[in-house]
Amino acid sequence: MKTPFLVCLLLLDLSCAYNGVAQFDDQTSVQEKKYLIYDVNPGEGFNLRRDVYMRVANVVRQLREQGYNYILVLPPWGNLYHWRKRENKCKWSEFFDVESLNLFVPVMEFEDFIKEAGHQIDLVLYLQSYAEGWQDGEFEMKFDIRPCIEAQHYYEKVGDKWRGMFFSYSEVWSHDVKCLSIQGQSSTLVDAIKKGFNETYRLMVDRSETILHDHFGDIHYWRARRSMRYSKAVIEMGDKFRHEAFNSNDIDDRTVIKDNWQNTEKKHGDAIGGNYLCVHLRRRDFVRSHKKNIPSIEGAAKQISETAKRLKLNQLFLSTDADTVEIDELASFLSPSNITLTRFEGGPQLSDGFISVVDQWVCAHAKHFIGTHQSTFSFRIHEDREILGFLSETTFNRLCPDHENECEQPAKWTIVY
């Protein structure tokens, strides 16, 4: 269904907590800098967007290695499907340590970009697939400026200015919009920018999820991922909750990591985790779209009970988007009845996004983790646990559908240093 242009602009403007200002070390003058802003499909969730960040960060890494002085502008978070409060214009510093991101490539918040470079964008480069699809069934790395297939539903020329959503900043506009049909990876987009757009001062790449990783799980993937440390506020709240709920701390759990991710390398088995089981139970739209691959509430409770008994754990941390009726139903099915179910409720002052990453931080420190099949929320926890040094068998697990006693477990994408 096409989204009406004016409806796209009528977004909520709710503030988010724990905002901060990005800083980066750059020796060049403002005039010599170039800015790469990016965005993704509005329907994409928080954790897929985290993956796209890594793809685009590696675009900027390659451009800088080849002498192009691009700064990566971080797109504000907001108005996401899973955020029931519909928060908007949230800075990255609410969720992530921006100074840590800067150790991989120079980054800045969108608001800081506006202060430094103004409200104008020189060009929006809208990425799209080829209208004719793949030729002869083969995937060829290529790109071409083509007529727009759907960009006109999201951008509109008003006078001499192109207007669009632009993260709900109504004063932001672009001088031009072009559509780039592209098949390829981060390096393919690098080639496209070098060939046709390297003189663009303020370049925005929309639908960045269109490009793939150059090599999923390689050293550059993991360097970008390791730089995505959570914000101090997330870690402090998550650690406080772990301590109060499970008597869990980094020293006893052997999950201490150095402040600088560049100096952190942990072997599998270094971490043992807190004395609790974490389960990520995905419901809501997964009940419709992945019904064959997820269990019923009773089926999930049975698997949780069996794992808790096997590991001799009686404390369960549940991370879920289930409603209260389903959570109560799950608790009633747990056996033995002495299994304590705990959740991080947060509070009305915390954004939905903030609560979700605290959940991930707590899950990352559990003795054992069980996720949901094909959930990017679970994928990010896998990565966190790899960084902390857990054994793979404690991390790459999933809940099986009711009709399968044993099901295929997640692929083990282990860390590379």
TrEMBL record:
Q: What Gene Ontology cellular component terms go with this record?
A: endoplasmic reticulum; Golgi apparatus
**Source organism, top-level taxon:** Eukaryota
Main localization of the protein? endoplasmic reticulum
* Signal sequence annotation: 1-17
Gene Ontology BP, a term: fucose metabolic process
Per the record's keyword annotation, is Transferase included, yes or no? yes
Give the UniProt keywords, A-Z. Carbohydrate metabolism, Disulfide bond, Endoplasmic reticulum, Fucose metabolism, Glycoprotein, Glycosyltransferase, Golgi apparatus, Signal, Transferase
Pathway the protein takes part in: Protein modification; protein glycosylation
Q: What is its EC number?
A: 2.4.1.221
Identify the InterPro entries for this entry: GDP-Fuc_O-FucTrfase, OFUT2-like
Instruction: Read off the PANTHER family from this record.
Output: GDP-FUCOSE PROTEIN O-FUCOSYLTRANSFERASE 2
Protein name per its UniProtKB record: GDP-fucose protein O-fucosyltransferase 2
